[in-house]
Amino acid sequence: MERVFREVVEEWLSWRPPPMVERELELPLEAGLATAVVGPRRAGKTYLLYQLAARRGGALYINFEDVRFVGLRPGDFSAFLKILAERGGFQLLLLDEVQNVPHWGRWVRSLLDRGYLVAVAGSTSKLGAREVPTELRGRYLSRLLLPFSFREYLRAVGIPASAGHAPASRGRLLGALRDYLERGGYPEAVLRPQLARELLRTYRDTVVYRDVVERHRVRDARGFEVFLSMVESSFCNVFSISSAHRRLASLGLEKSKKTLANYLKYLEEAFYVVAVPKWGPGKTPLTQPHKIYPVDPGYIPEGQIGRKMEAAVAVELLRRGAKFYYYRGRREVDFVVEGEPPLLIQVTYASAPDEVDRRELDALSEAAAAVGGRPLLITWDLEGHIARGGLRVDAVPLWRWLLGGSSWRSSTL
User: Fold this and answer.
1) Residue of 276, 242, 275, 277 whose CA lies nearest to 260
2) Phi, psi of 235 (to 5 degrees)
3) In the chain, where does the domain assigned CATH 3.40.50.300 lie?
4) Which residues form a coiled coil (predicted)?
5) pLDDT per position as a tens digit, 147-170
6) Within 10 A of 331 (CB to CB), how many other CB atoms are there?
7) Which among 151, 179, 184, 150 is positioned nearest to 297, based on CA atoms?
8) pLDDT per position as a tens digit, 173-227
9) Which of these, 216, 301, 227, 217, lies nearest to 257 by C-alpha position?
10) What CATH class has 1-144?
């Protein structure tokens, strides 16, 4: 194995960065702590490591998916250290598909103890919410990489992320936004648009069967498929475990509510869905109704632009690290975002004030009275303020809100 390590290092020293779309996720590098990149399959974790290597000197990238590493054993760690010392100059180790290393957590912790900076990435089914804490035992910082944001999408297709009041430039951004919502943000689907639908079907099937059925040893594949179809038909709507339980029972598929709640949790852990709890005091059990969103708007069938807009907002809130919920009283508001004050977001496919449904404003008014939050209407192309009774609602186009970046709270006005 020493020869293999030497070959891999020599190959890396002649490496040149491939064409890459710059990702906006920054990876922290701290002494004594590994950086773990987690997220959906095919979201670009390997290229994010490449990007880090290209920006920083003294980095060594190793892909443990390389067939030459078949048969790697814990005893080969000494050979790895020897090659690192022999070549010298490596301070940062980028370990891809690290789950293929037996006892990989011990390898990483030992490298940290020797003063190396370490970033790891790997298969979603084996390097996720459960494995990273278990293997690294608190010695890590985790960063979530999702498919392209709208800003990254614009960079990928070569459109400037700016627009003035000129109709042509604004129209170009709206056209790009429509394409983004239809195609989604998975890098390969963006860069190969003619294959986008086929790629998304492949990603979906891989997540379902590799990251859920195989990983969690789901025995009743048919029952799970029926449950999954219920979840997918509920995208952007409230999903009830109790309702799913009754429907499955009517089909002769007896599953406990706990089993169905676990199915939903597995889909979350595999980064296929985002389950949003209801706003209210205390914790919301997974068996209680949640609003369900796909992790990418491309998973929603074509043409459902309003649902795709709402899904894009949910994924962007997740990307920005917000804690968010949905509100349901007499009426429903899409999102309640924690803050001082909370932000109340309603998403609508409207381009003019008369296209805004009165029920959406009434829902914001009810939620504002109950939650004490600030209302925001995210629209297709309506911008400004709407006054309804004593309520003042800020309206911002989705493209502008998506491009708001880290200053999203202040940039929504």
Assistant:
1) 242
2) -50, 130
3) 1-144
4) none
5) 999 999 999 999 988 765 677 888
6) 16
7) 184
8) 999 999 999 999 999 999 999 999 999 999 999 999 999 999 999 999 899 999 9
9) 227
10) alpha beta
